[in-house]
Sequence to fold (521 residues):
Amino acid sequence: MATAAPGRSAGAPAAKPAFRDEPDIVAPNYALLVIGVMLASMIQVLDTTITIVAVPHMQSALGASSETVTWVLTSYIIAAAVSMPITGWLSGKVGARLLFLVSVAGFILASMLCGIAQSLEEMVLFRAFQGIAGAFISPLSQSFMLDATRPSKRGQIMALWGMGVVIGPVLGPILGGILTENWNWRWVFYVNLPLGIAAFVLLWMNLPRRAIPQRKFDLAGFLLIGTTLAALQLMLDRGHQQDWFESKEIWTYAVVSGSAAWMATIHLATTRQPLFDRGLFRDPNLLAAMFFIFIIGAVLFASMSLLPNLLQDILGYGVVETGALLAMRGIGVLISMQFASQLMRRGVDTRLCVSTGFVIAGYSLYMMSHWNLDIGKMDIALPGLVQGLGVGLVFIPLNTTAFATLAPQFRTDASSLMNLFRNIGSSLGVAVLTAILAQNIQTSHSDLGAHITANSIYFDFSGLDQYKDLSGAALGMVDGMVNRQAAMIAYVDDFHVMMLLTWFAAPLVFLMRKPPRLPGR
Fold:
């Protein structure tokens, strides 16, 4: 007859294994690894927006038209979107360390080539190369940060990583404007070289190796997903220029994207070795986090892309003033991310943090929906600070919740999906909000123009013809006033839409499962 083990009565349940607060991989120098990863992440995220203000200067320098020069932005976005889904497979094929180093080196080389490009064709080619290299940096940086950090400290390290991801798109147009105005548009690419080289050296010295699992490449799945994303990005980027679904070109992109997406879904659900392990999609928290990160991209990141034009073109602020006002979002993010990290360490439900963050961010959009042409700097800075506080409360707890119940071998694929959905949400949000903006400007201009009479502006139009050239200037001035007012009304309408979508997401957060509390927190 079996006897009970010493110190334990017969039939007593076996003790649970002790929680080991140790990282999955050990870096030679953890602090230097974090600095290297952060530098690599920063230049990649920064480059998604830093070129926006330099495009008009590129147009004249490269001899491009206003329509063809947009391919400088489009080529980068499409290349990055198509490449990102294979991050997990590539890291399993060549090793995550080697892929990360090659990606950073490729990004540095592509940045240098973009800086010396002499024609539009060269620029588009080099930007596509830059997009491919940069596509792997963000997912790998997130997964390495998680793997090299003790479980009890992952909330804090994700706060640090998230600062670069959130602040980068805000600082991009500002830094790009300063470099373009004071030096040359080519410096928006050259600025990556010193930072990138420093990141590469630190990663070379401190990036640990990870086990390389053997994975078969799902070519059919990659082609279907790549076609879906490429056609979708082309539709979103070209839609405004081609009057959306009034154009056969846009319909073609929509049909191709929708058909490829349907076939990709069937393929990934039925094939024996899909591009993404189906175990990923059995984690409800990851699926929910992908939806909410999409909302963040569609609403909050899209609002950042709209504000520079509003502040500079409508309200008349310069590049430096615009940068200072937009920087308030970054300050808010820095504050709330640290606060969110402390809350998670104390065991506060991460879902409550995320939901509260959405509510706060929605309130900032509510404040912005009351803007008018007479607002001052404080009226602009305060909602930006509030929005930053909300974004910080959303971003880090959401990422922590997404990875809390996920097996370590899924982290790279999960990170690539999270970054992909954020980018798609941002592209879709910018496209939809820009379309709404353009439509509402026309509608508001028509409505306001109908009320412009001699009585409404206290001016007698009857004798205007006798002033000849001055009459045209006077009418142009009136039309300019109407344009500014119509544009402000359209921006306010966009803020209303973003506010409603943000508040709609807030209660849905509680559909996620509460992540387990780690011992020692």
Q: What stands out?
A: The chain has three domains: 22-212, 218-274, 277-453+463-521. Residues 1-18 have pLDDT under 50 and may be disordered. Residues 469-508 form the longest helix (40 residues). The two ends are 43 Å apart (CA to CA).
